[in-house]
Specification:
This protein is globular. The chain starts with a strand and ends with a strand. It has 2 domains: 144 residues, Rossmann fold, CATH 3.40.50.1860; 119 residues, Rossmann fold, CATH 3.40.50.1860. Strand 11, helix 12 and strand 12 form a beta-alpha-beta unit. The chain is α/β, with parallel strands linked by helices. Bound molecules: D-glutamic acid. The site of D-glutamic acid (DGL) has 17 residues, from helix 3.
């Protein structure tokens, strides 16, 4: 009954942590493509190739349902995968949907015309690839009107986190928030549109100020997955073992993961 969680590297662990707490009986198989991170500076074809390879590995581990705990893969590859690649008995879901649902206060399947929502000025922090895909703005525009989105492409943050250089990561986050504020001085809400960023959530909140509501994905994704599995219990795959897999160096990745989640995590070679 395993479910797969995929990310380019360590960021998806923020989602894994939340889904494990919400669904303690489900064994999750995590795959970090650390050998190829970051994805945020790659083109869409490259992200598609790497993501499909990772998802196939998780299917082989007995996971019929895979969550792309990666906004870059969700923005650059998911639609193409769902339209022409995912077989009927498998599912691949992204991390955008729960975020847009929370922001627009409506369910994904609600096809009524777009309407006004509470938040009018939204800052989006994401990787260069996610920002240039404009996937977030596109999905939002189907559902909400009058929302001004200012996107800040946060170059370097994922690399610094993957390297474990949190001092550099903090300096970069503060400079990206400054850059955003020059374009949008008073955002009401901020979206952390990369699963690596919740590891820096306190810094984002501090730099943005206490009046800005920061939306971060892990808990939203966990709630949404719990709801999905209640409706589609047959999507729990046949795998039974909890596993951490990486395409990178398992020793190095285990050390970083243990540092981030503050509990012992042991990765194996994918
Ligand atoms: N954590 C991923 C995301 O949510 C990928 C970051 C990257 O590899 O650049 O976008």
């Amino acid at each position: 009954m395993a479910v797969g969680i995929f990310d380019s590297g360590l960021g998806g662990l923020t989602v894994l942590d939340a889904v494990e707490k919400r669904l303690p009986d489900v064994p999750f198989v995590y795959l970090g493509d650390n050998a190829h991170a970051p994805y945020g500076v790659r083109d869409a074809d490259d992200v598609y190739e790497l993501t499909t390879r990772g998802v196939e590995r998780l299917w082989a581990a007995g996971c019929d349902l895979v969550i792309l705990a990666c906004n870059t893969a969700s923005a650059a590859a998911l639609r193409r995968m769902q339209e022409s690649w995912v077989p009927r008995d498998k599912r691949v879901l992204g991390v955008f949907v729960p975020l847009i649902e929370a922001l627009t206060e409506r369910e994904w399947g609600d096809n009524s015309p777009p309407r006004e929502v509470q938040v009018k000025h939204v800052a989006l922090f994401a990787t260069p690839a996610t920002v240039s895909s404009r996937a977030f703005q596109r999905e939002l525009a189907f559902r909400a009107i009058g929302v001004d989105v200012e996107a800040q492409s946060c170059g370097g943050v994922v690399d610094a986190i993957e390297e474990g250089d949190m001092i550099l990561a903090e300096a970069l986050v503060r400079s990206h928030v400054d850059a955003l504020k020059r374009k949008m001085p008073n955002p009401q809400a901020a979206i952390l549109g990369c699963t690596h960023y919740p590891l820096m959530q306190n810094i984002f909140q501090d730099a943005l100020g206490p009046d800005v509501q920061v939306y971060s994905q892990p808990n939203l994704v966990a709630e949404s997955l719990a709801d999905y599995l209640t409706r589609r219990p047959e999507m729990l795959g046949e795998g039974t073992a909890k596993q951490f897999l990486t395409t990178g160096d398992p020793k190095r990745v285990s050390a970083r993961a243990t540092q981030f989640l503050r509990r012992e995590i042991t990765f194996e070679q994918a």
